[in-house]
Every structure is written in C-alpha cells, then in structure tokens.
C-alpha cells in the first residue's frame, strides 16, 4: 500500500523539484525554498555530494510527511538500495535499467525510469512502472508526449527537462500527469537568491494546477 499511496502523492503534488547542487548546504537551502513555495515533491540527484546522507537527513526531518523525498540520477542497483535504506520515497533514473526496476519492485518502492521511445515505454509498463519519466524532454518538446500517448494512452508520463513557466500548460495538454523541474526552478540558487527560488516554485505550482484544472473541464 505504501507504494500505491506514494504514487498518489506524486500525482497529487504534480510538480517535482529536481535538485542538483555543488554542496549539501545549497541543496538543503533549495529544498527549504521550494517547500516554502508550495512544492512537495523533491528529487535529490545523486550528482549532489553526499546525496544519500542528505536524503537520510531530509527524511528524518520530514516528520509531518509534508514532503515526498526521492532520489534522482540513480544509475544502478547499489545506489538504489542505498537510497531506499536512507528512506527515499521514490527512485528516478535517467534511463530504463531493468535491474533497478526489479529491485524497487522487490521492496515496493515507486520508481520512474527515463524513456524517449515507445519500446522503452512498453518495457517500463511491463515492469509495472506507474509513472514513466520522459527524459531529456527538452530535446523533443510537448509533441513527444502526444506521440507516446498515441499507442500508449494507458501510460502516465512525467516530462523532465525543458519544462518552463511558459510551456507547462502545453506539456499538461499533451498528456503530462506530473512534471520534473530542474534549472528553470533553481536558477536563483546560483546567486544565492533563494527568495527567487521560492517565488518560481509558487509560480510553477500555480500554473500546473491551473493547467490540470483546465484539462479536466
């Protein structure tokens, strides 16, 4: 049940903040900023120094379970297992690795592999993936979701990379059930402007929710 509830929480949150940083301190400050902005989904990538320890720290501090804390850029089973032990609510990979999918299934942890082809999307479905990450979405634009949804209307897709405040509506219209936002969300962190990160987070949440509401009319 935990995995199913986590999928529901991810879908309900809609916007997932993809956090990459050169230090633990900056990563945590970004997490705090996007949380203040209303984003509840956090994907801390393994490119952040000490990422597994940061995930553990964030999970231990998340006593009210307000945040959904996941691990991103997970390339192998060893890393996936370490993140799960640290308390990660979900695992995200940039590509489809069957062994990572099997490990996450074994421990009933939500997993979102990256795909850009129908073949990989079908394989993800066969491994029981509930939300499929489309990455790098910036190379294709919203049209890739329309193309994938053609033969696979039953699949749930989450584009990551290339989603902006200006085009988020188009991604939702094309079929996105959630979106992963990285540099477009956290660019303020480069100059230490965490108020900008917070403001941008609030704008993404507002525009995503508005787009979803319009599609449901």
TrEMBL record:
Annotated pathway: Carbohydrate acid metabolism
Protein's name according to its UniProt entry: 2-keto-3-deoxy-phosphogluconate aldolase
InterPro entries: Aldlse_KDPG_KHG, Aldolase_TIM
EC number: 4.1.2.14
GO function term, MF aspect, one: 2-dehydro-3-deoxy-phosphogluconate aldolase activity
SUPFAM superfamilies xrefs: Aldolase (SSF51569)
Pfam families associated with the record: Aldolase
Family to which this protein belongs: Belongs to the KHG/KDPG aldolase family.
Subunit note: Homotrimer.
Keywords: Carbohydrate metabolism, Lyase
